[in-house]
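Quick one, tokens below. Sequence please?
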């Protein structure tokens, strides 16, 4: 599968944990796309995967590059002792992540998703200790890199090849929200920012907050594979947490204006306006872009 097809060029040999990966995939398919049960299952499978890989380590492996999801388990089990190691980070440290979710929950106590899950403190502590001992932090995510400024290696995001974009034929300005309607993606902030604007919203996922979340707004749910970029005047993601900004990068590569919070980690991507999480700032940026496209009435 393409998403597992890491290049092995330059390596003398490689070993895999196919059975653990297969079991993880099977269990994952039986769970909802969101929620505490899914997060708990992921952590359990990461621990099994870390144990599987640890059994393949030999005494002469003196330096490791460890994927972040395996890090706390390898640290707790002592497998990193006496070795130097770098960490490939694709997510915020669990402590920072949970602090941001706690903040979001304080701002939006009505949310049905923001209080879903928190990891055990022992796991959070193990990850932080390991990150502090890591030689280098390797990531393309600017927000993650900024947490470890003195020892981070910031990679470039892989910009996709894009086809010419068809012109949006909608009568109204179309804002694409490239995620499901969940609190951590900043959906409450977006709703507040566009209140009263004559725009249409397209979401690329289910409405997981309350069923009437979008009452009074023109909203359409689109499949992420159905040419959503051709409908977009603007892509907006004011997230508290975003670890996989793939759709933001796709939009920017296609020449679609993008507004995203700094938490999305794409400050180094051309075509992205990175902002702090503030509905008033977000509204101002949205109006500036859509008025520039002459698709939003100027008196809004």
């Amino acid at each position: 599968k393409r998403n597992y097809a890491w290049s092995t060029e330059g390596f003398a040999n490689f070993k895999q944990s196919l059975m653990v990966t297969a079991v993880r995939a099977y269990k994952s398919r039986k769970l909802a796309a969101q929620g505490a049960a899914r997060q708990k299952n992921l952590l359990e499978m990461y621990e099994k995967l870390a144990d599987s890989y640890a059994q393949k380590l030999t005494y002469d492996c003196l330096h490791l590059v460890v994927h972040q999801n395996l890090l706390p388990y390898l640290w707790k089990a002592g497998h990193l002792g006496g070795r130097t190691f770098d960490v490939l980070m694709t997510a915020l440290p669990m402590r920072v992540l949970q602090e941001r979710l706690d903040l979001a929950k304080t701002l939006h106590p009505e949310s049905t998703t923001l209080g879903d899950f928190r990891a055990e403190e022992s796991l959070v502590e193990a990850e932080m200790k390991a990150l502090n001992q890591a030689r280098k932090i390797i990531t393309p995510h600017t927000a993650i890199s900024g947490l470890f400024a003195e020892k981070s290696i910031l990679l470039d995001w892989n910009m996709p090849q894009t086809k010419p974009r068809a012109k949006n034929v909608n009568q109204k300005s179309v804002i694409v929200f490239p995620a499901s309607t969940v609190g951590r993606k900043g959906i409450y902030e977006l709703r507040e920012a566009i209140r009263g604007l004559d725009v249409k919203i397209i979401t690329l996922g289910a409405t997981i907050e309350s069923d009437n979340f979008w009452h009074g707004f023109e909203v359409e749910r689109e499949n992420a594979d159905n040419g959503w970029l051709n409908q977009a005047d603007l892509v907006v993601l004011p997230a508290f947490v975003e670890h996989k900004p793939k759709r933001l990068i796709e939009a920017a590569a296609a020449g679609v204006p993008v507004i995203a919070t700094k938490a999305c980690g794409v400050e180094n991507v051309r075509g992205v306006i990175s902002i702090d999480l503030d509905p008033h700032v977000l509204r101002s940026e949205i109006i500036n872009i859509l008025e520039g496209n002459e698709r939003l009435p100027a008196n809004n």
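Residues 36-54 form the longest helix (19 residues). The chain has nine helices and ten strands.
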